[in-house]
Specification:
heterodimer; A: 265 residues; alpha/beta; Rossmann fold; six-stranded mixed β-sheet; four-stranded antiparallel β-sheet; 9 helices; B: Rossmann fold; three-stranded antiparallel β-sheet; 8 strands; nickel transport (chain A); ABC_transporter-like_ATP-bd (chain A); ATP binding (chain A); ATP-binding (chain A)
């Protein structure tokens, strides 16, 4: 199977004004590598602030103007230029955003899903909106609500309905599950798994290690702006991960001892 | 200090008129010497209940009260709420030092404030803005601010759901340590049963709008 997306030695830096006119450059992403093939679900796990979200934003061209991206990003074997990106993002390449603030606070949920369906070139009638909600276990009544009337879990499922309105080939799911109950987490990972099985490549950023190892094909572990290790999901439970940070991550899970390993901080 | 109790009795709440109750006749009691978990399906009203307990929402029926009058010297609410996204809880134009100076309490004006901050907030962050520290670091600032308000109770609503496991374990160690030292009761809202099992003395279930 050929690789759909290949990222090599990606770095992202920002130029900022510090005090007055003094400028500084910070580099939150130093060297990240990642590859995803059609049909694959790749989990990107690791430290908060390690640059997992920035990696997705760099691929989809969502970074602010003061960001500098270096390294190679290839999509379908060719470099992902600004021009290609503009043609692909939102259709073939989609982001399932992390923050529920991506919802418009002034529009009803039904209208927002309808808009996503229209942008994806789908029919956008009431029936389609209700079907998109029902596919995520949400009642038709939810269409009339505003975002502040949704629970965290419901808002996340609405975002999922919007992101998957088209039939994307590459989905970058940024933390799709925090704050959800176990059944909803399982349902969302099952949906991402199904999208991968249907032929798309899915990259899922997650802190929910116990659940994501159940569905992922590969785990990419990162810390401090670098990808430190790529491992099989089963390697965690078998103690076969090599990098000290990967081990610390597994040992810190509440069910595995809640250990705070000082040497990795 | 002898423990005191925060109690909710028969609390009913709905976001819109004529809609069914989101919370119906919910009652619970939380001691200032315990760490209690609150679990329940997504949409059951956990966060709404947290906001009611913290005085941010008023229930349409029922009451929230304390077993004893205020005895700490603070102008902040006796129940402090810490939520999942600290960046939404802070003024983006304030530096971390200003964020931490906000709670008006005798504790925040005394030398004891340093004991709260030690291990929780790195002095190097103080002149930065909220978006210039990582999510885990900002959650520690958020927690420190809640503690500096010198509350009797603290509600932790999915405070580590967006954080990696190592950062999560570190934050909970610090929180439980401070809560024990200062006699603060903690209500832990989480979907992570493994986490609740490790940090809580007991766990309550909030069914679909139902009674605990």
């Amino acid at each position: 199977m050929s690789v759909l997306l290949e990222i090599r030695d990606l770095s992202v830096s920002f130029r900022q004004y510090d005090r007055g006119l003094r400028r500084r450059t910070i580099t939150p992403v130093e060297a990240m590598d990642l590859a995803a093939a059609p049909g694959e679900l790749v989990a990107l796990v690791g430290e908060s602030g390690a640059g997992k979200t920035l990696l997705g934003e760099a691929v989809l061209g969502m970074l602010p103007g003061n960001a500098r991206v270096a390294g190679t990003v290839r999509y379908r074997g060719e470099e992902l230029t600004e021009q290609r990106r503009r043609a692909l993002v939102g259709r073939e390449l989609v982001m399932l955003p992390q923050s529920v603030t991506y919802l418009d606070p002034t529009a009803r949920v039904g209208a927002q899903i309808g808009r996503a369906l229209r942008l994806a070139g789908r029919a956008q009638g009431r029936d389609e909106v209700v079907a998109a909600l029902a596919a995520r276990n949400l009642d038709a009544e939810v269409a009339r609500r505003y975002p502040h009337e949704l629970s965290g879990g419901m808002a996340r499922r609405v975002l999922l309905a919007m992101a998957l309105a088209g039939s994307p080939d590459l989905v970058f799911a940024d933390e799709p599950t925090p704050g959800l109950d176990e059944d909803s987490v399982r349902a969302i990972f099952a949906e991402l798994r199904a999208i991968a099985d249907a032929g798309a490549a899915v990259i899922a950023v997650s802190h929910d290690l116990t659940q994501v190892v159940e569905v992922a094909d590969r785990m990419v572990i990162c810390q401090g702006g670098r990808t430190v290790e790529t491992a099989a999901p089963s390697a965690f439970g078998q103690g076969a991960v090599r990098h000290p940070y990967s081990r610390a991550l597994w040992a810190a899970l509440p069910a595995n001892g809640f250990a705070v390993a000082e040497e990795v901080s | 200090m002898t423990p005191l109790t925060l109690s909710a009795e028969g609390v009913c709440f709905t976001h819109r008129r004529r809609a069914p109750w989101l919370l119906e006749a919910v009652s619970l009691a939380l001691g200032s010497d315990e760490v209690v978990g609150l679990r329940g399906p997504s949409g059951a009203g956990k966060t709404t209940l947290a906001r009611i307990l913290a005085g941010l929402l008023r229930p349409q029926r029922g009451t929230v009260g304390f077993s004893e009058p205020r005895r700490r010297d603070t102008s902040c609410h006796r129940v402090q709420l810490v939520t999942q996204h600290p960046v939404h809880a802070m003024n983006p134009r304030w530096r971390i030092a200003d964020v931490l100076a906000e709670p008006v309490s005798a504790l925040n004006a005394s030398a004891d404030r340093e004991q709260i901050l030690a291990g929780l907030v790195d002095p190097g962050w103080l002149d930065r803005f909220p978006h210039e520290v990582s999510g885990g670091q900002l959650q520690r600032v958020n927690l420190a601010r809640a503690l500096l308000a010198d509350p009797d109770f603290l509600i932790a609503d999915e405070i580590t759901a967006s954080l990696d496991a190592v950062t999560q374990a570190r934050i909970w160690r610090l929180l439980l340590e401070r809560a024990r030292e200062r006699g603060i009761g903690v209500l832990v809202i989480s979907h992570d049963d493994a986490l609740l099992k490790v940090v809580c003395d007991r766990v309550l279930d909030l069914g679909d709008g139902g009674v605990i």
